[in-house]
Amino acid sequence: MFVDTTLRDAHQSLLATRMRTEDMVPALEALDSLGFHSMEVWGGATFDVAVRFLEEDPWERLRKIREGLKNTNIQMLLRGQNLVGYRNYADDVVELFVKKVAEYGLDIIRVFDALNDVRNLEKSIETAKKCGIHVQGAISYTVSPVHTLEYYLKVAEEMIERGVDSLCIKDMAGLLTPKVAYQLVKTLKERFDIPVEVHSHCTTGLAPMSYLAALDAGADFLDTALSPLASGTSQPPFEIIHHVAREYGKKVQETDEKTLKFLIDHFEKVRAKYREYDVNMKTVDPRIIFSQIPGGMYSNLLKQLREQNMEHLMEKVLKEVPRVQKDLGYPPLVTPTSQIVGVQALLNVITGERYSKITNEVRNYLKGLYGRPPGPVNEELLKKVLGNERPIDVRPADILEPELEKARKEVGHLAERDEDILIYAILGEVGKKFLRKKYEKRLKVDFEYIEGISEFTDDLPVYPV
Fold first, then answer.
1. CB within 8 A of 341, min separation 6: which ones?
2. pLDDT higher for 336 or 214?
3. How many whole angstroms separate alpha carbon 79 and alpha carbon 88?
4. Prediction pTM value
5. What is the tens place of the pLDDT at every residue in 267-304?
6. Do 141 and 166 touch, CB atoms closer than 8 A?
7. Helix (H, G, I), strand (E, B) or coil at 89
8. Comparing C-alpha atoms, which of 360, 359, 395, 363 is closest to residue 377?
């Protein structure tokens, strides 16, 4: 009944997503023997960080993990129409991306929309189902005047109508209390008779208690991480929750003590290797109950402030985040809305004047390009940004032109395969820079060849650099 997050969300939340593939591969055989229902190994921020900072091919990571986890389901986190990027992509990009992950042997896709706008999930659900992938619809959980039990049940119903195979309560900021966890899981199970998974973070200290309440209510699966990469801004530790679930009489997998010790030792060394990125959270942070900042957002925001010698502003930013969130209609703080709200809150604090500078992302959000806000937005802010223009009221992807052919032409010979096209289509110039470096040796040889024979013909292809 356990889904392991060690190779994805755990290090995204604790280590700014910096774990390299080389640190995962030695642990795969041991992880594969633990009998997890599934392992979350890809998606989220890992795609971007692999390309942007680690100079690793994310597709190659997925291939190696699939080869190493022969007996365990593997899954990814997909941001609906955002895929693994930060904006809505055209339907043709979504279709190709989902078909590719199916080819790599992905078993489960957990799909969510930051605004719980189910229209943004339609294309990814449809394509994944055609590819035979189990689709899990994730409810982005937050606390606000508009996020009631009935609200969440309506979101669940809309996802089930579109064909999801299971549901997940995605509590990215650790705001789910035991009482609400029990009510929500029990009601979802009774009303829809569908498997329900609970995903939370330990940032506020609530997650382990909420997991126990969810167990009582009949939750089918719980997300945990191995203890060296658990707690803090990550998930509850597998070893402890597994022990308690057994005590509760739940059917759980048997674990080998020797294997667990090997994995604990391995990931303790891995965490020490990335200490410069470590959020290093030594205790729970009750402030998060009010700021609602999720684990991955917290670790990355703290790192950015440290790099700019502005760590002293963290307290003010934590207070400004919920104010911006309210102005924008209470969007749950998960990618990309966590970045949209977080950056604007930071700007408001740095400038000393709220909304004296407004990001393009906030403008696009208010235009409706990310989807429908959960609640009413601040009318004064809306007027300041849009004037007399009104937000769009259609599915955001409906106004997007197909992108793949344009991407193919723009990236040219820097792309050898569809996976390369997707890296560029999703990450733009960052993706192009990565591909140029990846293939620079081949490109250099091509240029030397062209220069050597250029005296014989003028009708040669132009290879971009």
1. 321, 324, 325, 328, 331, 333
2. 214
3. 9
4. 0.89
5. 999 999 999 999 888 888 887 787 777 666 776 677 77
6. no
7. coil
8. 363
